[in-house]
Please model this.
Amino acid sequence: MASLIREWVGINTFASATQTKLLEMLGKLKQENVDTLTILVMGKGGVGKSSTINSIIGERAVSVNPFQSEAPRTVTVSRTRAGFTLNVIDTPGLIEGGYVNAQALEIIKRSLLNKTIDVLLYVDRLDAYRVDNLDKQVVKAITDSFGKGIWNRAFIVLTHAQLSPPDGLPYEDFYSKRSGALLKVVRVGAGLKKQDKKDFAIPVVLVENSGRCNKNEIDEKVLPNGIAWIPHLVKTITEVVLNGSKSIVVDKKLIEGPNPNERGKFLIPLILVFQYFFVVKRIERAIKNDIARESRPSWE
Model:
């Protein structure tokens, strides 16, 4: 997963207004002593993970081929600008043959060993009109791999947002229903309870990576709801980083789970005390009672 850190020249390809907003966000992070940021991008295959990374970076940093299966490996893109380093980690799709791809998940976890994840981008499509058990399986697999706390450092990215909703439904209503359904699946799959909702307030951001995305009068890429989505995406990343939760450190214990030899070790002293008072002491008393009741021989 090692990557050569290059100068972030792609930022110069954005509209001037977008560049200004992005640099303001980077400055805000540096003021909070955040000079390195690592973003993990995950989701099912074909949802636009790689294209979203390229949009963030401002260049074709990750290969995108919709007609070719994804390789089961991670790719890290690292860019630096004015003393700030951005690492974005692309991952293979987590579904294979209708099930969670355990091999891909294991490769992802192993490649992240000793890394710190600051933000998780969970990517799906806005134009996917329903959620199903596969969505829940993917969310559960991510939670099992990185812990429930990963969702405190996460937000949902919905790609293919330049669309006309079906049946004449207003854009905002369609977006609200789609994001609401997906958020519900995330909360169920991650095992988040009602009391977790405040701590795990997961934002949703719309993205359109294709060239057909509309632009406003200052040349920024905008969605049908009028939002310039690249600055909004970076703003959400900044808010997640500064929300007071902890980044996820991917260590050996997190990857391999608890050592079975360590399980229940804290119970050993209690078990020994129980055995002494309720087993050993009872045996001793029984032996003493037997000796006391035993008749002595006549010669004694």
The mean pLDDT is 86. The chain is about 35% helix and 20% strand.
